[in-house]
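Q: What does the predicted 3D structure of Molybdate ABC transporter permease subunit look like?
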Amino acid sequence: MRKRIAAMILASVLVLAALPLCAWVDEPREGDVSQGSANGVDVAVSEEGEAALASGASFAFDDFSRAQKGSNRDVDGTYIGYAYYQGASDDYLVAVAVEGGVIVRIPQQATDFIDTKDPDDLSLVQSYLIALDSAAVNGGVVLSDEVPWTFTTGQSVEQDGIVYSFGVSAGEERYYVTVMGADGSDIVADTNNEARPEYVDFAHVVDPSAVNIVPPATGLAAFGEFLANLDWSPLWVTLKTTGVAIVFIFILGLAAAYFSLRIPKRAQDIADTIFTIPMVLPPTVCGFVLLLALGNNSPVGRWFIDHGFSLVFSWPATVIAAVVVAFPLMYRSARGAFEGIDPTMLDAARTLGWSNGRIFFRLMLPLAWSSIAAGTVLAFARALGEFGATLFLAGNYAGITRTIPIAIYFEWMGGDMDTALFWTCVVIVFSFLVILFINLWSKRTTKYRRQAIEE
């Protein structure tokens, strides 16, 4: 009995403590601050991240969206503030994330579902917003119940000299959330930039029966669903690009290394510098130079356009970018191997009447094969991971030029950490297997070639 009485007293104290935290702004521009915290209720979020529902709740959220940035806006020549597009109606619940707090505007239409005097309803609003915001931005800055929350049903609220207005009409079916100084000043000016909101969330408050959330899959079922919904085109583009590029890299690297040793010494130094420089330049510089050389305004680019094909921002451009940045690795490895061959062996082969071609394929390649294989591995890895030059020259077109490194970057930028992590693991595993295969194959072939030479 004593435990029950103690529990009732503790519950009463907690309710009384929570009531002062929920002050309301019933009239525009009065802006009383209310504090709230999420009540730990389990919130189910839809797979697309647009709806949220808690078991037994009297309302749900739907049509959730997040506006990361706004813009200064004028209406009929009058400055209305730094504005975020709200939608075609004024019935959205709005959450403005500011530095050190959150401002929530509950529209009049939503008061049919939300009791604005009930702390539990306010905590549920917090829970919905935090859950939806966390699902919308995987790994980014999200709403928190550890900062002060301001709730209002009015059209505007003022805090610290900043006025936040909701449902500001800018013409037929165009409504904005606007922020400006109390004196009408621009909050994004250099002297007051810290007052700009971090982002704004929007959601419709609906009856729970209007939301149907299917429980998410777990374990292997979730992974299978992830794979089924994954866009696999970056993998095919990467394999196709790297496979074609490594053929060109191998042939051009060996040819450049061989012929650079057969020209005068001064010319060798110049050729070596030209062939090696893409290795030391940043990939973005290589991409920009290629864009200037092969773009639509260059003679080469115009020639391709005149023949019905634009070279830049096409799949061949991904191959060109990969070849240019990975070629020096193959060239340097092959040239170093060729320079390490004993010249007397080559002279002896010539005295036996061997042609240059036979010397190259029957003598130089077997002796230099270990270094050539290592160069091939390095060039393959470099081509597989190429990002900067490809993005400059070929762009980011799904199914055409979007390779795995580009997909990782843009998925991460879009907040899809799961997809970015998956492609990262694919690159690591694939690179490991290919390098292991080439190393084992190179070791085996080198052993046989060495035995053949000894015989």
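A (community wiki): The structure tokens above were generated from the sequence. Residues 417-454 form the longest helix (38 residues). The chain has 13 helices and twelve strands.
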